[in-house]
From TrEMBL:
InterPro entries: DegT/StrS_aminotransferase, PyrdxlP-dep_Trfase, PyrdxlP-dep_Trfase_major, PyrdxlP-dep_Trfase_small, WecE-like. The modification N6-(pyridoxal phosphate)lysine is found at K181. The keyword Cell cycle does not apply. Belongs to the DegT/DnrJ/EryC1 family. This is dTDP-4-amino-4,6-dideoxygalactose transaminase. GO terms for molecular function: dTDP-4-amino-4,6-dideoxygalactose transaminase activity; pyridoxal phosphate binding. It holds the Pfam family DegT_DnrJ_EryC1. The lineage of its organism: Bacteria, Bacillati, Bacillota, Bacilli, Bacillales. GO terms for biological process: polysaccharide biosynthetic process. The keyword Protein biosynthesis does not apply. The active site is at K181.
Length: 370
């Protein structure tokens, strides 16, 4: 069976984790955590990176930093993972789901602007498959209406828009290091803080609402409870694993891009299939390769019979029980539902061989040619 995903392992992670154990610092913001944040801040050229237990936790931190509440509204795509919406549902914020652009599966700027009201406080964009949203248009809208912008860049490390890394364009960005992502530590994430005035408070929120980080920096002689917060820290064991992945990030990225291009070259001419569209201003990271077909379930079953695991993706949130409870779809659902029902994601992971990709391509071609 060719699996849909394999967690990324380059071979040096166990040694790094053993080193973390020997250093006797296993909790958050340890030596390996600093290695990771230093690497990310240098790579992203951003104000501040804070490692978190998950991308979900990073998104929750943005809601605290923006102080959204029950009187506010947030605009986001319905076509996203539940964490994007959950962060705001926890604060009682009304969620306004809007439509996507069918060529990229990303949020529509026109739909965003049409959904803005006097209660709107923030826009959350999701860079689907590591391909950027139309950030110029979205930031223009945000600036004209005075709105916060959060980039859910869970899938987008190593992707960029007009040369700028995703996650660094809005006020905040959130990255995932879950085992399904390009770079992983099993469970983990990061908050990118691009809003200078929020850096100090973000550090306090991460440390359970205390100024403990400032204490360790020698900025105060003792630390105390300063604000609300939680334990938004990534264990140094996880950070040790992640540090190896980041050290070999170019190798991992190159491997995935090779497989993505092999899929693209092999499937782009199939008349019954639509392959991913990458706008000219976008550099993607080969997070996933999907095709669109009106025979979604039939193709998945066919590939399964040939020992290939292909999968669908999100069920639009506005159609779910919780989506109806915590939000509503604004405007016409012109593309979200219909396009989501066409998605088939093909196997893609670090180390997938050319032979395996060729096997998937060959069987996919055979399905449509019979």
């Amino acid at each position: 069976m060719i699996p849909f995903n394999k967690p990324c392992v380059v071979g040096e992670e166990a040694a790094a984790m053993q080193e973390a154990i020997e250093q006797t610092k296993l909790s958050g913001n340890g030596p390996f955590g600093k290695k990771c944040t230093d690497w990310l801040e240098a790579r992203l050229q951003c104000e501040k990176v804070i490692l978190t237990p998950s991308c979900t936790a990073a998104l929750e931190m943005t809601t605290l930093l923006m102080e959204v509440g029950e009187k506010d509204e947030v605009i986001m795509p319905s076509y996203t993972f539940v964490s994007t919406a959950n962060a705001f549902a926890l604060r009682g914020t009304a969620i306004r789901f809007v439509d996507i652009e069918p060529n990229t599966m990303n949020i529509s700027p026109d739909a965003i602007e049409a959904a803005i009201t006097s209660r709107t406080k923030a826009i959350v964009v999701v860079h689907y498959a590591g391909i950027s949203c139309d950030m110029d248009s979205i930031m223009d809208i945000a600036n004209r209406y005075g709105l916060w912008v959060i980039e859910d860049a869970a899938q987008a490390l190593f992707s960029s828009y007009n040369g700028k890394p995703l996650g660094t364009i809005g006020h905040f960005g959130a990255i995932s290091f879950h085992e399904t992502k390009n770079f992983t530590c099993g469970e983990g994430g990061a908050l990118i803080v691009n809003h200078s005035e929020s850096v100090e408070r973000a550090e306090i929120l991460q440390e359970k609402g205390t100024n403990r980080e400032q204490f360790f920096k020698g900025m105060v002689d003792k630390y105390t409870w300063r604000d609300v917060g939680s334990s938004y820290l990534l264990s140094d064991l996880n950070a040790a694993y992640l540090s190896v992945q980041l050290q070999h990030a170019e190798l991992i990225n190159k491997s995935r891009l090779r497989a993505w291009k092999q899929y693209y070259d092999g499937l782009t001419d199939l008349p019954e299939v639509e392959v991913p569209h990458v706008p000219s201003e976008c550099q993607h990271n080969a997070h996933m390769f999907y095709i669109k077909t009106n025979q979604q379930q039939e193709l998945i079953e066919y590939l399964k019979k040939h020992d290939i695991m292909a999968v669908t993706h999100y069920v639009p949130l506005h159609s779910s029980h919780a989506g109806k409870k915590f939000g509503k779809f604004i405007g016409e659902d012109q593309f979200t539902t219909t396009e989501s029902e066409k998605i088939v994601r093909l196997p893609l992971y670090f180390g997938i061989g050319e032979e395996a990709v060729d096997d998937v391509v060959t069987h996919t071609q055979a399905f449509f040619n019979t």
